[in-house]
Write a structure and sequence with these properties.
Helix content is about 45%, strand content about 15%. By secondary structure, the protein is an alpha/beta fold. It binds one DNA strand through α4, α5, α11, α18 and β25.
Length: about 800
DNA sequence: GACCTGCTGCGGCGTG
């Protein structure tokens, strides 16, 4: 604020004025513009304007998705309050808070409390929690866009509904970065339309995107995703900056880049560090602190540093490989540039040639500010039944009284009365199959109809398992001499023998033994393998897909002035010469005959996930025309159906298999939906409390988690097919795994496109990366190298024959 | 000439 008491940006004034007028709402602004501060300030100003509303006890609850954000924020808030001379106390309450502190808070709440969604639920699980919220004025939800499309977002919705039920005066304020569906985000957060407002900053952060090029186009590989060839171009960028964040897409990629940088410039030793989710929390914290203190020159990270560096600005950001989405790219870019008026600079390092088209697509999407939607999660019954037990534990509730409260949330607005009754049946009787098992009868109706948890043990187990995050299957990695390094996948370690060396957290470790879910290691040096983790796949967003197709279509036009496209010209000309470059209203299919057999390539540019389903569907549809089976491969741009038998497919057949008729029926016939649902059910079983993940003193390991949830799944399939949680598993498969909506849209687009069907006897720049990917899945790396060499030789031979 | 893959996040035993 300046001396007149006005804030730097008009949206900040707008926010506190609306706040003081009794509105709930949502503030939208880029990182670094003080949107967080604006709500904090609104509460303080409101206090001075309406002191009679502010009685003793908790006044403001601040919800953040990250514990690390809470700590910095609490400090900043307390400092500001002390400066004003107010006697308010700001405290954090989450998993990091020690027991004594929690006890003190339970007795005597601070004025402002910073929590996670989980710890807010834990507060609601306490008896007589109403006393905490009696004088509460406002609940602020920070980084709402991060929570919106997740089950943790549903937790927030439910907690807010319960708080509003107890104290209707509470104002709800969300704080969010820009996303495509802001109005919907507001509606989800504040379903009640009266006195609801959206405050959007007019200011935008300027973003400059700089592609990094090799000296010549030939150096960039056609396929691949490591990008190691460009390390010599990256070193000077780091050297010319004070502090640099280097974002990679996967944990193993970050480990490899850390090594690459050290090899390319050994003086980086001690000046650069690594940060990802499988590295020990203490080590990560050290890295974060030393990045802001200036001790570290660069940190290689995954999206573990997407959030949480608000107070630790850096001057340069480098993105290795495609970010797969516009919002993520902008968020990462926003990590650089100290002041809101400074331009955020982000260097884009392509890992293969075609990724330069993604760079040009990103540039246009960022210029037009076309940012992805975040779809709100709806009808997560696993989260609901967990929450109902939480309420029963926190003093109890009357089902008839609470039905409209839950129904009023966005997530459960479509819930029927029968579904609600089923949820009550589930928490009291365990559903149809739980009748004879007392541990599923968690909640007991009292004479007056109130539902409560009676048993102490059930309450304790429930509190220990509150939350919507189900842990991955990981083993701890520890030094024999003591000291924790990080986490590693069980299957990766199973391939290792005593004495083998691997890399974690940038250190070379020698495998000593495996004992009780812990891998013991010795410090070592020399050549070592980099582990891989089975994490989630970053799907290519449909926004980026759209611009990617557009840029590719324009790539050879004389108007294409972008440097990225000009640079790629030789490669694109090659694609055009031997096959075709699809225009925006075209859909390219290539049939390529090689010594191995027959390859059919399709290029929807819809991302791996969608392609996986499409490949299965098309293989199924072709096999209905005549008996043939295929192996499949895919990347973000397209997919391959391969057979050693000739693929007889006319242009008319092609139209038929690409038709949108009976689309979802055929998808269901072509995928193993039961198996997919079984995998989804694992999380649902844990969240709904059918399977207990954490027992006092121990964590249930993944194998037994998988098997017990698998057994329950089979039992329900046989004896209780109407079970709501079982049905939810199938719905999640369709919404997330199969991305039904996007899938249907893709087919609608294809069906109105002109199909271009090309025959070739050599791999094209578009098909080559998919082929390499398919080989990698089936072959060891030495075999792969030989095969790739053969493929090159074949392509070259054909080339010389033609010329 | 072309290779080395899959993200993130939370919580909890115990007392007065």
């Amino acid at each position: 604020m300046n001396e007149k008491g006005m804030s730097a940006f008009s949206f900040q004034n707008e926010a506190w004025q609306r706040f003081s007028n009794g509105y709930s709402g949502m503030v939208v602004a880029p990182t670094g513009f003080g949107k967080t501060y604006s709500i904090f300030l609104a509460v303080i100003i409101d206090f001075f304007n309406h002191p009679q509303n502010y009685k003793s006890g908790l006044k403001l609850i601040w919800v953040t998705p990250l514990r690390s954000l809470a700590k910095d924020l609490a400090r900043a808030m307390q400092e500001a309050i002390d400066e004003i001379g107010l006697d308010w106390v700001v405290e954090v309450r989450n998993g990091d808070t020690d027991f004594k502190q929690k006890m003190r808070q339970t007795k005597n709440m601070p004025d402002i409390l910073l929590v996670t969604p989980e710890s807010l639920h834990l507060l609601l699980a306490q008896k007589e929690h109403q006393r905490f919220f009696k004088n509460l004025q406002c609940v602020a939800i920070d980084e709402w866009h991060e929570l919106l499309s997740t089950k943790r977002g549903v937790m927030v919705e439910l907690a807010l509904a319960a708080l509003k039920f107890e104290n209707s005066k509470i104002k709800i304020w969300g704080i969010t970065a820009t996303i495509g569906n802001l109005d919907q985000a507001l509606e989800v957060l504040i379903p009640d339309a009266t006195k609801r407002t959206k405050v959007v900053a007019k200011e935008q952060k300027k973003i400059e995107i700089l592609s990094v090029y090799p000296p010549e186009v030939e150096i960039l590989p056609w396929a691949g995703h490591l990008g190691g060839k460009l390390v010599q171009e990256v070193v000077p960028i780091i050297l010319n900056s004070k502090s640099t964040l280097i974002f990679t897409n996967t944990r193993s990629q970050s480990e490899m880049w850390y090594q690459l940088l050290l090899e390319a410039y050994p003086d980086f030793a001690g000046q650069i560090a690594l940060h990802h989710s499988s590295i020990d929390a203490n080590l990560r914290q050290w890295v974060e602190e030393n990045l802001s203190s200036g001790l570290l020159k660069a940190v290689v990270s995954t999206s573990s540093l997407d959030l949480g560096v608000d107070f630790k600005p850096v001057d340069t950001v480098i993105q290795i490989g495609s970010s797969k989405g516009v919002a993520r790219f902008m968020q990462r870019a926003g990590r650089s540039g100290h002041s809101p008026f400074e331009t955020s600079k982000i260097y884009f390092v392509p890992t293969h040639s075609l990724e330069l088209i993604e760079a040009s697509a990103l540039k246009e999407a960022v210029r037009l500010r076309i940012i992805e939607h975040r779809e709100p999660f709806v009808l997560a019954f696993d989260v609901l039944v967990q929450f109902l037990v939480t309420l029963a534990l926190g003093g109890g509730f009357y089902p008839d009284q609470f039905f409209p409260v839950i129904k009023n949330t966005y997530a459960f607005s479509e819930m029927t009365k029968d579904e609600w009754k089923w949820c009550i049946y589930f928490i009291t009787q365990g559903g149809k199959t739980g009748k004879n098992y007392e541990e599923f009868h968690k909640v007991v109706p009292q004479v007056d109809g109130k539902l409560i948890v009676e048993k102490r043990k059930i309450g304790m187990l429930h509190r220990m398992n509150i939350g919507a995050i189900v842990s991955d299957s990981m083993l701890r990695v520890k030094f024999l001499s003591g000291g924790y390094v990080g986490m590693i996948e069980e299957y990766f370690i199973s391939k290792l023998h005593k004495g083998d060396k691997f890399i974690l957290a940038g250190r070379v470790l020698e495998y000593a033994m495996l004992k009780e879910m812990t891998v013991y290691v010795k410090s070592s040096s020399g050549k070592a393998i980099t582990p891989s983790w089975l994490g989630g796949r970053l799907p290519l967003s449909s926004n980026l897909s759209f611009f990617l197709r557009k840029k590719l279509a324009e790539s050879l036009s004389p108007n294409a002035r972008e440097k990225e496209l000009r640079f790629l010209h030789p490669l694109l000309a090659n694609q055009n010469k031997f096959s075709h470059i699809p225009k925006e209203d075209e859909f390219l299919v290539e049939q390529i005959k090689t010594r191995e057999g027959y390859h059919l390539f399709f290029y929807p540019f819809e991302g791996r996930l969608v392609h996986e389903v499409m490949a299965g569907l098309l293989a199924y549809r072709i096999s209905k025309l005549y008996p043939i089976s295929f192996s499949m491969a895919m990347n973000d741009y397209g997919f391959e159906l391969f057979s050693d038998r000739e693929i007889k497919l006319s242009e008319k057949d092609l139209h038929q298999i690409l038709s949108k008729e009976n689309l979802m029926q055929d998808v269901i016939s072509s995928v193993n939906a039961t198996e997919m649902a079984r995998r989804k059910f694992r999380d649902i079983a844990v969240i709904s409390g059918m399977v207990v993940q954490t027992m006092p003193g121990r964590q249930v390991n993944n194998k037994s988690l998988q098997s017990s949830s698998g057994i329950i799944f089979s039992v329900l399939e046989d004896y209780d097919p109407e079970n709501l949680l079982l049905r939810q598993a199938y719905t999640e498969v369709f919404n997330q795994q199969l991305e039904e909506a996007r899938f249907v849209r893709a087919f609608e687009r294809i069906s109105t496109s002109k199909i271009v069907y090309i025959f070739s006897d050599r791999f094209t720049p578009l098909s080559f990366p998919i082929k390499v990917d398919s080989l990698r899945q089936s072959l060891s790396s030495e075999d792969l190298a030989t095969r790739i060499r053969k493929m090159q030789e074949n392509n070259l031979k054909k080339k010389s024959r033609k010329e």
